[in-house]
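Slide 14.
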Amino acid sequence: MKPVFSLLHATYGRPEKAIAAMKMANERASQPGRVEHIFACNADDPTLVDFQMGLAAQAPLNGTSPFVVIGNFNGSAPAWNAAANQSVGEVLIQMQDDLELPDHWDSVLMKAILANREACLALMVSPVFVRVSDGYRNDGICCTAIMNRARYLQQGEFLHPGYISVFSDDDVTYRALRDARDGKCVFVDAREIIFLHRHHYHDKTVPMDATYERENSSEAYAVGSELFHKRNPQASTDGLRTWH
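Slide 15: predicted structure.
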C-alpha cells in the first residue's frame, strides 16, 4: 500500500530522542500502514552510528519501515528537503525530535483538509498547504510545515535548502499565504489541531543542547534573515507576515 503521509524527520545528535519521536508518531496514528517515516541525517553527526544501531534494534513498525538518507547538510532545512526528495506520500509533514503528534493525528489532519471544500476538491491535483498550531505561538507562523505533493512539486522543494534552519519556516509560511492570496494554492487554517513543538525556546523544562545551539546560531539567523528578505522583498510591506 502506498503511504498517504510522509513524516520528514531531520535529526542531529539525538538518536534516542529521534527514535522515541518516531515510535510515538507511529503509535498515535490511526492507520500506521498509511505512514512512512524518512530520516535525514548528517554524515558528520557523531551519533550517527548510535542512531543507525538504535533504529535497527527497534521492533518493526506497524507502518512502513523507516528510511534514512545521509548527506553533508549544513543544517536542518536542507536535510528536511532531502527527506522530501525520497518521499512518496500524498501529504508531507515536517517531523522533528521535539514534536509530539496528537492521538489519531493522521485521521484528524485528513478530516481538517476534507472539511475545507476547496481543499477537498484540490487535494490530489492542486497545491494545498495546512497550518496547525505548535501549542505555544499564536502569531500565524507554521513551525511544522504540512503540504500536499502538488504544493511540493509547485515549489520544487519542501523547505528552501539555502536556509540553515531558522527563517525556513518564515519562508514556507509566507509563500503559502502569498500564493493563496494570488489563487495559486489552497491554504487550510487548522490551528485547532496541536502538533506540540516542545522546543527549549518555549518550554524551559526541555534542556538546551548542542543541537539547539547549532540550529539557532548567530550564523543561522544572519543567513536566514538576509535570504528571507532577498527571496521575499514584499514581505515587509504587504501585511501577510504577521510574525517577527
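Speaker note: The two ends are 42 Å apart (CA to CA).
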